[in-house]
Amino acid sequence: MPRKTKVVSHLNTLNEKRYSTTTVDESDGCGSSEEFEEMESDSNNMADDEVVDFQAKISIENIADVFELCQATCPVRYLSVLMYMSLRHLGIKWTDSDNILRQIGAFKSETSHKWSKAFLSGDFDEFVSENRGGKHSPDFWNYFPEIEISAKQFTLERCSQKVASFTSMDLALFIDTAYYETIGITKDTDSELIRSVSSCRNDLRRWGATFKENGARPYFEGRERQDVVESRKAFIDSFLSRKDSLYTVSDDPQLPGWQVPTKQNPSIILFHDESTFKSEEVAPKRWFFGDSAPFYSKSKGRSNMISDFVVAHPSGPFFSLNPAECARALQKYHQLGAPTDLEYVLNTASASLNVGYDNYLDNAAVLGQCERLFQMIEFKECFKGHTIEYVFDQARTHTAKSHSVNDFSRSVGTKCTVDKIQYLDPNGKARSIDCFFQSGPNKGLNKGLDVIAKELGIAQPEKFKLPALRDHLSTHPAFQNVSRLELLAQKYHVRIHFCPKFHLNFVRNKLHGDSEEEQEEYNDEEEKYQFKIEWIFQKSDSKHSTTQARIKHTKLKCELKPS
């Protein structure tokens, strides 16, 4: 009978200890002293100058031997998940990964994938349950439970902040500082962290924290970026520089009143305002840590949106016509009385959507509401003789472009999203190009980019490849177009402004993360302007209900705040 190899003898010893009913003392180690002496002797006898061939192929049997060896001190679940995640990281196919795992004695791919999901999704208790085998030794937290309590509190505070800047490195540094403060020793500059970053990541999972896509970011992030601050300042200064041409409210709280413009050609500003109200119905599942919760997303659950126009004029706070003015508007624009998907308040352009899932005003709905306003406003008697200006925020439903060069294909009769391209040439003259043939054998078909490029004066466009042709056309005024809303405003000869990003409607969201000094400064400004808002609503002759006025009250308070 041939003599057993050292590896087989060692594995037999480990299996006997694993399935024995007696407890193995920790000092005994993982094998007999004789085996360790033999292996150590073989290692010492190895020539120092022996070259290790890292390109030599390692057989699957050798990997299985090492895997079996590791099972004596580590649960097979951990090893299977580690091997599975490593194989997937290296791009190994599912079937190939399954074959490797089966041959070395690990869980199959399906089971390993299930436990990988449990580990990654944060179900740490389930992942570490039923640990068989392994050496149980005191953990770092067994010696320093007070540091663990402080670390949990630190994690909760950082995860509850609106700015998503917390990382596992922050936790590792916090634990490291707390450790040296506890033992009263000064840390050497070259010393490593007392608890590694990977251990801190596992601590976070064990405490119930998860790391996933940050899809509910607060709107205020980035509002103090230099370009945003400059854009916001320029936007506000454009109105302050002509303050004498606008309707404003006096600063005297004892005698508030509207200040009439003192210059000729006065202006009236209308602010487009949208408010979404949830019905307390939220998604059935969400992840959270402790009592902290993500921001409410208006794309989740049921909601109802109200969209109206706030007027900086004594006739406000909301735009509306009296019955006589509305009757004259209907005589000219019969479509004002036609039913729509929106529910309009009588004699106004204020609208709301029925309660339902994912109800939100899209670009078509916004254009329809704005066209209704542009048609009605010419019959507002007290607005005659004024320049009317409209202010919208930077929502994508407001700034959507009428067309893009990527909306067109190259050949005749292919993709096209618009019937006509309207633009202004370098001299400011209005130009128009039909996107479909109006006569000839191709009548009714899309012209394609080659024909459109020739009509725009580009020589031999067929020599360009499609990406190069699109890049070339993107610099032409015909494709440097304005939004659909701006085109609609040009049709009715009105002027619109877009607020800079991170505008004042969302200043309240920022306050939860501000310092006490910043909040106190804001409260002083809020008290200064509070009386103006209350006075506007008290003097309002609007036909809107008291309930709707109350709903808009909070929103308007933020609209009228200074920068």
How does the major sheet shape up? Answer: 7 strands, mixed
| Uncertain regions spanning at least 5 consecutive residues | 21-32, 281-287, 504-523, 525-531, 541-563
Give the mean pLDDT: 72
Dominant shape: elongated
Instruction: Report the helical percentage.
Output: 40-55%
Strand content: 5-15%
> Tally of extended strands?
11
Count of spatially separate domains: 4
Number of helices: 21
Radius of gyration, CA atoms, in whole angstroms: 35 Å
Distance between the termini: 92 Å
**Which class of secondary structure composition applies to the elements?**
alpha+beta
What does this protein structure show overall?
With 563 residues, this protein is of the alpha+beta class. It has 4 domains: 6-45 and 56-128, no CATH class; 140-207, no CATH class; 226-400 and 488-559, no CATH class; 405-481, no CATH class. Helices cover 42% and strands 9% of the residues. It is built from 21 helices and 11 strands. The chain has helices at 6-19, 33-45, 60-71, 76-89, 94-104, 109-120, 124-128, 140-143, 145-160, 168-183, 197-207, 226-240, 323-332, 363-377, 396-399, 448-455, 466-473, 484-491, 507-511, 516-538, 546-559; strands at residues 248-249, 258-259, 267-278, 302-311, 343-344, 351-352, 356-357, 387-392, 420-424, 430-434, 495-498. Strands 3, 4, 5, 6, 7, 8 and 11 form a 7-stranded mixed β-sheet that branches. Strands 1-2 form a two-stranded antiparallel sheet. The longest helix has 23 residues, at 516-538. The termini are far apart. The relative contact order is 0.07. Residues 34-44 have a biased composition (Acidic residues). Residues 20-44 are annotated as: Disordered.
